[in-house]
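Notes, Module 5: Reading structure tokens.

Key idea: the token line is not a picture. It is a compressed description, and you learn to read it the same way you learned to read a sequence, by spotting repeated patterns. We will look at two proteins. The first is printed below with its tokens.
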Amino acid sequence: MRNPYSRPLLKIYETARKFVDDFEPTVTSLVNGEDTCYQPLRRRHKTQVVQVNDNPLSFENSKALTDANKTLTETYEKLNADTLAILEEMPQVSFRIRFNEPKVDEAGILETYKDYSFTTDMKAFLAKYDKLVAKVGELPKIIEDYEKSIYQPDDFPQEANTKPSGTIVYRLAYDTMSGRLTINDNEIYKCNLDSKLDKALSSAFNAPDEAITTSGNLASAISAIRAPEGLKRLMFRTSKGSFRIHPEITDEDLKQNKLDKETIDAEFQKLSK
């Protein structure tokens, strides 16, 4: 993991996953308990009612359900707060949307017991549990997808600045007077002068391959640059408060990163149309 977000998200996931696993027996016992205070309003099998409960399970008459709901709610709210505090720092809004509205597993408790007719309180409790499980299940997917994205700051110590080996095949350049950003004379972006990206590029070209301090995250600006994604991934690194460029890409760089010059050149042709 090469970014400051994945590690804390993974820690949250591991804690929440353990809670879900440990809490599941409590949930199933509330659904299947033999005491009348621990059962749903009705238990159905297909169309035949096989049990009618005169004392339906609710927050008013079941301390077990009330205590379980309190524990579940506290965990649910903490998971939301801790996770969103991290996701709000990430440039991809889609991750927040995915976490807030995860797809509930078809094998969730409510679906598993779809032949039961629950009281309102019991149904709300089970729906909250199912959504918690779905949110927890979405976290490793978010971590994996973010790890694959091009906006990965290095959280390892940087290697000493050395000239790349091999023949330079792509060179990034920036004209501070015009705001013109180019790769091999192909214009890939036109910066507004005095913009955040203009200031960052001006500073970065004075210290290539070194991280410079920026105000905010430049991910959205980098995503608008008209260059093949593989090449951008080699040339730019950005995170909140940090930005770095690698302006000279050699044939060895391409080989080590499993990139092909002919493919990149073809992508440049498509982007220029």
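Here is the second protein, with the sequence above and the tokens below, as before.
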Amino acid sequence: MEKWFERQSRLVQILLLLIPVVNWFVEVLVRWSHALRKGSLLKYIIAILVTLPSGIIIGWLDMLWCLLFKHLILCD
């Protein structure tokens, strides 16, 4: 899922992260796929935090990060 998200245009990424429920769903899928691929403790902690209801807020922060740096926070 992470690779699919990265292949999307910047506009599609921003739109996916802008819509609240879609934001959380995409965030959970991308974060868990990244955590499973990289396998570090920090990646797992972030994936768990995103899975909680606070994931919507983290998703909006990721939207801003994506606008500025063209990738999600700690997902490079």
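Summary for the second protein:
- The helical segments are 2-7, 10-18, 20-38, 41-51, 55-69.
- The mean pLDDT is 90.
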